[in-house]
Amino acid sequence: MRQAIVEYVTALPHPRSEPARGRAGRRSLAVALLSGALGAAVALLASRQRWSEATTLVAGGDFTLTAQGSEVTGVPAALAIVSLAALVAVFAVRRAGRVLVAALLALSGAGTVATAVLGATDSSALDEKAAQASGDTSATVDALSHTAWPYAAAMGGALILLAGLIALRYGKLWPAMSGRYERDGTPRPRKTKPVDPDRPEDLWKALDRGEDPTGA
Question: Taking the model in full, what pTM does it have?
Fold first, then answer.
């Protein structure tokens, strides 16, 4: 009996553990929200900037060509939008659903990093523009140079990835959507007006509902 009591007391949660879990949940939530939102904003902004520049030979001489991030690859911007949706959806689901959404958030960040780094050395968009400008489908560009914006997009993806990893680790401590907003299919009880004994129509309506209008 004594051993059972000792084991029961040992299994009880420490009174300080709950406040510590609450603080860890709030801190991780704040970091994940800030990291995910900032990363998506940076990735979207970087996708609209000039990523590369080069020259091509046309009839009048050298012609300068530029390519924006969205022209090089549209994946970082698309994944940034997906990450924003996942960042919001992580609060609407629980348990396994939250793990899946957090994993999607992390994968969106990893995909943004990979495609942005690959786009930093991609010249296919400029080669296509060179072919259009010169009228020669085999034309390519020369003096190719890149800006720092692809790496800024990769940094944004890294922040999204960090948010996803935090959600995977601490998501179980975060609050979920309140249950009062969820419909469980249970019919709501109808509110009936009190029966006025001086109104015969109220008495008849109460009898139709199977109620005792006298209240007895």
Answer: 0.70
